[in-house]
């Protein structure tokens, strides 16, 4: 009888221990390259770059099994420049991601912290700028649709569903955290994707309220988006959809995105007019992006990828047009290390407000064209 009781007690202890199993993983990616640009502020330039394709980062990812298909999860991810060792994303310690939450195998995950919006989660993987096949320098002008993660959402609560036979969906809300300004710098987004028989379809929506100085209210720097804003506006509405199809070693896709801005006071990324960006006068603006892309695995180790993006905009009575061609080839030296060579050509026309500016590089001077070529090395751990 005593032996039976002892076995039962030990069994209970071991079952509890099994339910409490946890793991923490250190991971990261380092992307270093040498980039030539034909015109940066009127001069050609050779420079060492970090994150020409994928931003260099390291992080901690953990999970604890709570039993019954439920687990506690967290991610803390730092972004840094490999060329000088400095922290990115406004010098934040964990600027890329920082969240904790609960995840269920059956119902999905709820997380809280600094997180990606639904445009990044759902539409981004269908555009080359949101993947390893193009990344930073393939972004649409000013990364106006945030497919390249120019900003994350602070103070956010996020839900992502489980995978229901290829269908996934999710939503996010970023609080302003201001007692007397509920809508002063808040954000919300939603999206969905569906995969079947080689097809991948996705759509998403993002809205930011008061993510810049607006009349009647001071900018709330503790709100949903701060220090990494793409635009400083009273309201930003971005939506997009995309599709791609994989057949054998090839994948081809199309992406359309649109961003509408009201009370636009400035664009933070480099162009003419104001140092570090474009100063504007509180007017409305509109961007549309059309991207066609493709990639092909020539061998298990060697891939080629390319895209063409046409962007048209309306900004303070001017209607600039951008044409950008992108091409990349990458060779895997191992499962974790690869070398790449990529180039971009951008032309902007029909305006006197902005100059050519490949994302992540300094703007050209009076030239309407800009060309860049990068040779780089990526290592994952």
Brief account:
This protein has 381 residues and is mainly beta. It has two helices and 18 strands. The chain has a 16-stranded antiparallel beta barrel.
Features:
Porin_dom_sf; 2 helices; Porin; 381 residues; disordered N terminus
- What CATH architecture label applies? Beta Barrel
The run of helices and strands is: HEEEEEEHEEEEEEEEEEEE
Low-pLDDT segments = 1-19, 270-276
Total E-strand runs: 18
Helix segment tally: 2
- How would you sum up the global shape? globular
* CATH topology type: Porin
Question: Helical proportion?
Answer: under 10%
Broad CATH class: Mainly Beta
For the termini, the CA-CA separation is 53 Å
The biggest beta sheet reads: 16 strands, antiparallel, barrel
Average pLDDT for all residues: 90
Largest sheet, order of strands side by side? 1-3-4-5-6-7-8-9-10-12-13-14-15-16-17-18
Keywords: Cell outer membrane, Ion transport, Membrane, Porin, Signal, Transmembrane, Transmembrane beta strand, Transport
Signal peptide: 1-20
Organism: Paraburkholderia phymatum (strain DSM 17167 / CIP 108236 / LMG 21445 / STM815)
Membrane topology: Multi-pass membrane protein
